[in-house]
Write a structure and sequence with these properties.
Six copies of one chain form a homohexamer. Chain A is of the alpha/beta class. Chain A has two domains: 96 residues, Rossmann fold (3-Layer(aba) Sandwich); 169 residues, Rossmann fold. Chain A has nine helices and twelve strands. Chain A has a seven-stranded mixed sheet with strand order 6-5-4-7-8-10-9, sandwiched between helices. Chain A has a five-stranded mixed sheet with strand order 1-2-3-11-12. In chain A, helix 2 crosses helix 3. The first copy, chain A, starts with a strand and ends in a 9-residue tail after the last helix. Chains in contact: A-B, A-C, A-D, A-E, B-C, B-E, B-F, C-D, C-F, D-E, D-F, E-F. The interface between A and B is large, with 44 and 44 residues.
Chain lengths: 299, 299, 299, 299, 299, 299
């Protein structure tokens, strides 16, 4: 069994062979060439990004969301500095000077972690979401400078007028992120305000979001700085690696101890992630995407 | 009366004339040409950076220290990212992964503000100082993830071994900052650790610190990233301007209402800042620096 | 020695006689008839409201300020209810609905206590003051939903636009409270907003404030509800009595143990409060107010 | 589709017609006349107060409970003032004087919100409930001045002796609130103590509770002030309206987008609330109450 | 029906008779003699320690875990004192001196309660667990001086090097506690460090743990103090009794009101705890342990 | 210069000689033999326990008070266990069971530290003091489960009735601790309640207090457990040593750098602690105690 973080590179393909089990992020549905090459090797492929937990969550993805949520604030704070193009405000203000307003679209894992750090910065934080129970929980556990708002288009636009920093944190599993901030909305924002769109890997919450890189992380549209780095957690590799290992470890251990079929037999969520077995495609989603034949995996 | 933030530029010198009072940061002792030019204009000059409060504090400088202290953490967090040269750790970690260690040398205004923000980031924070009463106060008002340590060379070196982020926050009024981190100490630190030396305007707490700019903020020595931007608060000009105005306003109002002599007559700390009166030098420090004659100001 | 809370009523005057010491709130300067009547009785009168502490504070008045500050929020919350004339908002909102904005003019004893309770209500609280050190201390010890602003006319007017509840908490010892909210400013406020003017006993912070009573506590000007009950702490007599006793007890004990002259001999602040001795006026302020002769008290 | 807050008034009945869907609070089981009149109009009626969430909760009622819980403390604080009939104590006391004791019967939505605000007032708060897991959660998220007690008759009576303010917050869905405080128990309480019975809409937790109005909110029994205003949230209409809209919006949107049958087909909790369809009664409860025929709604 | 805390003593056996129901901790599987004697009496026995709650928890055992978790820290603090054999450190340190490190193996009920108290002591606390969701919840509700780590052998050994106090808090229901600290690991620990093994009733998390008593609570192995008192909660009998009563009360009331069969008919978790009925064994576990015949209980 | 913690033992006396400076705790006034022996050696003796800070505090004693205050709670918690003789209550209770009441006499350094730890234990804490400003500060920085009460005999007796744990924390510098708890008062307390008298080194706050040792720390009077260990900090020697070094270091460094006279010339508080110079007694207190001649030290 081989455990990796990212999908195998073309150089590595020839090294793979039947009998091996590969546990890593594959994102097969986005790469037909990779899918075909791997099928030919005959390996058993378990796509960690699709493993489901007992509550329907994605345990191998959650830590990346936590990291991205927390990082979004440190990037936002930095790019609000004037030499970085921002409007020159300090998130927490100082005694006698008001703090900045941080508006977080989405109160899930990304949003909660962003709100915690923004609150720790002493900013004035609002989290928007449509799930009332989630808002209640956030009010139970967040510091007093985090307020929650029920999200609708009217409220979003109202908050854009006040926002110094906007965090796009609405991710819908297996779907494009909803377009909550339109191009026309940017004119409501203060010049030099910053958008950090954590949902960029799924297309972004802002219509004007397009993926950037750590080496060239921002661009400006209508006076608003956009930070849309894909794979944000890559920048804190040390933290991310530990977090990933923690998430993967229980699965890896069970697979190693018991073999793929036994390990999957009482864990539907793991079985769901088995994408190839001995060179046969077992993922319905991948099969449908590339119109390929498939055979459901039976643990 | 003219109120500014920074010293007058050469272009502005011809516009000044006897009878005017100028209240701004002058830093005359660092600029003989400026001093002479201003003496010739015949203005009355009040150097805001030298106004003293009733407790011996510097009320027009304190907000800049607060801002620099808070900014030091957002810069530190950013430059700990690997693409910025850092060791790739997230200050607060995530559940299951330990937070980074932030070591703050000095528990004064800069250090307290740095500690607050670092704690808000969920880092593991230690503040070192030699003033036991200050450490007690910090423990009374800081979050539980801030610990305090009595500072001595042994403890500093011990903490360098653990530090992911080191904040140099020891400033001694009117003197060079003490050299608390020697070049040889850098080898104790983790590769990719970051030093943010807020004391850089006074020479820095680290032997290896030299001033940098917002456009080129960091350099690396022995594997340790140094962020030593002079005038950090300039990057958050909106916040800094409000903070400065707040600090200056009470003085400006009193000077405007009552004139320089009356305003200074019952405020020694303000009188102390009167550096020139009608073209005569009244600051002993400046006079001694440039071996010029002076006449003490009598309110 | 007789210890009371309020000044003696006319019915009680005949009962007083030379040799007695009366320790109570007198407010002599506001009542010439009382002053003359008491001088005739020959008592020694110590006006507790004028006793000074070692830091220049007024230890027998401070607890009343604490109580009034805390009560101001419960009254404000109540009169924001629509049946009471208010705009029908709940201070803390609920999850998904934003909290109300509470603006507190003054960060002294009254303001700090008001801010604590308003923050506990989960409101969005700002405290305005001109004392930067006080604002710093408040940020150290207040919950995260309290922000501080440097107070000037511009900022006050800006905050009036946002305020649901305004607390007038600026008291200057021995002087009329400054008029910080003018009649014309009321038009900036939301209809149904509430002003609680704790400074009413000294004339009020709002131009439109005039004293009201617990039985008829509010009136409306330009759509803004005014709550200006004089002697607010009277409504929580149980709490107030204990608080007053606590404040008075050390003085009463010392006076009882050692007699007036000895007790005052090493406590200038207490000596200052001795207003009559054996039928002679010893308070300069009272003497000047009524153009009466006086004899300084020598402990 | 028509969306309202309260049931249609008789004047509005003639305006309703077949084909319309009305989404509002109906409380049909309490009003036979209304039920019959509406059946004749032929409308489809969805009783928002009976919509069930996925966890068996009542999402359109919960925000009203939150508001009532929070308001109960501000009313309690106010009526503890002596001019309002109370015993003259300030909930939080002041330094040196003990806080008041607030006893909250029930740790559900109402009780939790009451406890949060009472704790923010710095009172000494106890919450009684019989659900051990709920008590554990409350201890996890409440401030340190909230204690929890397992509720039984002995403990309730013990706490009545200590209580300055008692909040009745035990509501059992679809049933009369249990009578936890008997008339004879009032004699245990301090004279001037206050009972705020939030459960009054369901008959009240106190035997002596009877509904009052915002214009005449309290009465006194055996020396204990009773505040039993029905529909407390009506007094903060601005906050309540937003809260209700937030709760109703997701249902309204789904009904509008998809029509009643489709919207209900995958949401049993919504289907459950459909009380009439095209003039036929579909609510078993209402049918049984008035002995009328009914036809279950099939989405 | 008889309700007790502990199993009946031999002296009490003759007093029991058919028709009685006994609700208490029995631990029958550990005592064949007791089992046989009770069968002969003909009683109905409900073993409270095996009652299951709706979430699969053990509601009559949970309060004992809470108490043991909290007590573990006060015992650890005490035995870290040098006269008790410990290394002479104060858990929270003092300003200027670092706090002690408390390492808690397991983040369940015991671990959470231990962490809360250790954090309140101002120690530097880490909780290790393999359940990522549990670690997330702990970070939501614990003070900032509690960090969480994903538990594996490498991390445990690393933390042993740093630990002043180790709490063994890993309990697996109905199984031996896992051996997480081996004898060889003790050499990693500081001399005078303390292990409090709360899991001792299930064999202990440390290989070197063996049960001790309140009268002779500790022993030392390889320089490490072991505190392994079985039945820790017995030492705070007043608190434990109330806690037990709270947990048992709802069951006892239902049994008393409705009789055993009816009370069990809609509560599988209670039915599960019925170990004997009228002298017949109904517990499969006990039957298997002693190879005795049994008859499942049907409510 | 020799720096120690405790006074030199007789064995060490012959090793001392003129020219040496000894900086340690001496407590000379309690030991005439030691005083005479040291005078003969000709050393210069600086009694660290009498060094005064700029605010009149005792900087070398304060850390010991902090340690003793914190330890008092862990000892109290332990001896409340029934096997230790206590009444069997857990300080923090558990959810559903009320916490214990901790009554702290005195809100100085000892009391504040005791209150912090007791609050961290989740106990119900009250601090009694007569200094209103101190009580206000404590309310600003203590957790919400700490209340403050103005101390008088009536309130003390009232609290004794409620107390599970009483901490005697009233120390008056250079004087016997006041007797606040009389023998007759013990009958008010619950049987098995615990008194930890931190003031024992100065005679104790309780009439029934007499010094005990770490090996035999408690005794019982009238059913109340007394823990009166003299030199409590000795039990956490590791923490105490660091704390003492921190406190002494600045003085030691200054003495070493500049010599005794120069170091004392601008530090009256240090000069005050110079008890012998070159064999001449310079401490007035010691001289008066033993009727010996002395010569004031002039820096």
């Amino acid at each position: 069994m081989i455990v990796k973080v990212k999908e195998p590179l073309p150089d590595e393909w020839p090294l793979l062979r039947r009998g091996q089990t590969l546990f890593t992020y594959f994102h097969l549905a986005a790469d037909e060439e990779l899918t075909k090459a791997l099928l030919e090797t005959g390996i058993t492929a378990i796509a960690s990004e699709t493993v489901r937990g007992r509550k329907g969550d994605l345990p191998c993805l959650a830590p990346m969301s936590e990291i991205a949520g927390r990082m979004s604030i440190q990037s936002g704070a930095k790019f609000l500095e004037r030499p970085q193009g921002g409007r020159g405000v300090l998130l927490g203000g100082v005694p006698g000077v008001p703090p900045a307003r941080v508006v977080i679209l989405g109160g899930g894992v990304v949003g909660k972690n962003a709100a915690q750090i923004a609150a720790g910065f002493r900013a004035d934080v609002v989290v928007l979401d449509v799930d009332a129970d989630r808002l209640r929980y956030l009010e139970d556990v967040m510091p007093a400078n985090v307020n929650t708002l029920f999200s609708d288009r009217h409220t979003i636009r109202q908050q854009l007028r006040l926002a110094d920093l906007l965090i796009g944190a609405v991710l819908i599993e297996g779907a494009r992120a909803p377009r909550l901030v339109l191009r026309e909305d940017l004119s409501l924002m203060n010049p030099g305000a910053v958008i950090v769109d954590v949902a960029i890997d799924q297309g972004g919450c802002a219509e004007t979001a397009r993926p950037t890189t750590h080496s060239n992380p921002t661009y400006c549209v209508d006076g608003v700085v956009h930070y849309c780095v894909a794979n944000m957690p890559g920048a804190v590799g040390r933290t991310s690696s530990y977090a990933l290992c923690n998430a993967a470890a229980p699965y890896v251990r069970r697979l190693a101890d018991r073999g793929v079929p036994a390990a999957c037999s009482d864990d539907e969520g793991l079985a769901h992630a088995v994408s190839m077995v001995d060179g046969r495609l077992t993922s319905r989603t991948v099969a449908e995407t590339f119109a390929m034949p498939f055979e459901p995996f039976r643990a």
